[in-house]
Amino acid sequence: MVLMVNNESFEKAIKLIAKSASVLITTHTRPDGDACGCLAALRDVLAWLGKKVKLLAPSPVPQWYEFLFPEKAHVLGEDVSPQEVTEGKFGHFDLIIVVDTDSFSQLVDLEQYIKQTDKPILVIDHHVTGDKLGDVALLDSDAAATGLILLDLFKYANWPITTRIAEAIFVAIGSDTGWFQFSNTDSRVYRSCAELIDGGVKPAEIYDKLYQNSSYPRFKLMIIMLNTLQLHFDGRYATQYLSQRDFQQAGATYQDTENLINECHRIGTVKVSALFVELADRRIRCSLRSRCDIDVSQIAARFGGGGHKMAAGTYLQGPLADAMRLIYEQVAQQIQRPQSAK
Known about the structure:
There is one protein chain. The chain is an alpha/beta fold. It folds into two domains: 7-210, inorganic pyrophosphatase (n-terminal core) (Alpha-Beta Complex), CATH 3.90.1640; 216-341, Diaminopimelate Epimerase, Chain A, domain 1 (Roll). It has twelve helices and twelve strands. The strands form two sheets. The chain has a six-stranded parallel β-sheet. Strands 7-8-9-10-12-11 form a six-stranded mixed β-sheet, with helices on both faces. Helix 5 packs antiparallel against helix 6 (163-176) and helix 9 packs across helix 10.
């Protein structure tokens, strides 16, 4: 099912924002470049509109995206508790905006607050899967990044796109297209990014901040991960994993795993990959990638997860070997199907 945004939806979103005075903006757990870029861009636009704005991330923002925020976003479980949010101690808001997700499973400890609030919720998202959280939703599954939807909203509303806002949106688009390598990099992406470059974005500087700025612990974690690499089905399916002990050995954090799964796709035979990460509570976070006609979002959905055809994720119960077996069985069903059945 393809989801598209129309002008009526833009009008509803603009009206919601216009009548609000205090806005809470949040996103999914493990915020990536698309999520962080959207948070930063929305914060600046809403501040220009005279709104009181608070950013709340369900988990820490990776270090390489921190340059987007003049002031750090609040992090649930670090400087504010779920109870403080629910009880109104974090603030009283006229509007809640959720970007880059429409799923309760991605909001973790914010789920209860979202479910019980009587304030309107605006969702801006590009994923096919979702729980219909919003009173108003800007959903476009054809968009390579949520940042593209945000850019369209700003242009439709004639809101300012400063250089800093343009940089944030460029990060959103660039990161969700693998710096324009993924198959979702269409003409809309290039046209939008050309506009942003005309608005002052310097792509080489952004690339340096995003991809030439890894910490040594993250690099050590990647080496550990690569040493777990196994290939299946004549090299078409790649698996990798990281345990809690691996994080301790590398001195790395959970945020350091972002995009590591893509490394194995440098191998020419690999069409589908999975990275299994053991969490502190012993659940297993499984990230999935595809560069063929196998839809990994369908595999993730079988276990309560979701995402895109080419990139998805879910949570599984441990131990690690059991989680890996479950995904192996699902991939096997897909990868061994006759071509005519796909």
